[in-house]
Amino acid sequence: MQKLYKIEIFDNTFNLVGHSAIIEPDLAYDYISMSTTSIACLDEMPNIRQYQLAHITDNDGKIAFQGVVYGFTQEKNALMQVILKPLLSLTDRDFPTTGYMTAYSAVEGWIEHFLKTTYQGNDNVPASYTTIKIQSTTQTEIDAEACTAAGQTMNMYDFVVSALQSYGVVVRAWFDPQSKALSFEIGADREPPVTIEADLENVISKTFNMDGDGEQFNLVQLIYQDSDGIQTTRWFALNADGSIVESTPPNYSLEGIAPPLMMTSRGIGSGTEAPTEGEWLEKAREVLKPDADSQQISLSVSWKDKIVRLGMGDIGRPANILHDGVSYAAILTAVDTARGVKNLTFGFARTDLTTLLKLQRRGTTW
Q1: Mean pLDDT, residues 330-355 taken together
Q2: 354 by DSSP, 3-state: which?
């Protein structure tokens, strides 16, 4: 039997502008692809607008989902459909990198400064929402070479996803209608990895895609050719622990790779402007694809499961997943629920075409 839920919509001053009963909704939050959720509402809400805040609760008042109104449709003799995005979508904005590199050396500092300057307002510009609270719980130094490789503008959502992928820094967002505050917390997850036994009977279904979007290598030769035709060659190795080290002869560094050795070669461009150190490392990472980048593990359990207790609030949490006697280190990156089943996705690879197309734009990994 399906449960009834309630959706409430608040404007930027946290005044209630619409509410409706809804039949148990299918909810989705994919941290790396900005998933949308469509909600069929039993009541009309004529006063809702884009960028208002959505609050979904169950019969017991427990929060099931919070997000931003992205759009809505209302057709004759049909239920109103409200399209929601996660609150994280508020970071999906381009920003100029000028000043960030010199003023902020921490990943959290970049994200915090963006949120403050974009949404908190100042003496001349009103805040986007009545009260916005922003807190950094850790300070994680950015790779200096990566800063050098940054363009004049970047997309903050791309930066946020790369911050989780490369540094383990996650952005969590929520709002409290009673205190009229929208909150952001930025920091590395300090919780110990949760252990999940994927072969137990409580796991309804499981998928282990360990090669992501193609063949994996553990040694790559990168070649750059300048405008005079002179080539520069550098080698990079992928260690078993996921780290990438330079292994250009005669300074070989191959003792950390997991056999067998699988080698490939790639070009890294040509012309008058040589790649920066950050660009060499980024290209090596793109080709070698550490497990954290290339794996996708999906587990399905009952929403009421008492063993696997992870939910949308745990995105960014590290996990050790046990399967066939092997332990896979992974990070929870997506959660969706449908018809009483909770689907958990770990890792940064995606196999569906829609998500792959979304990820193509993300050209910089920090």
Answers
A1: 83
A2: helix
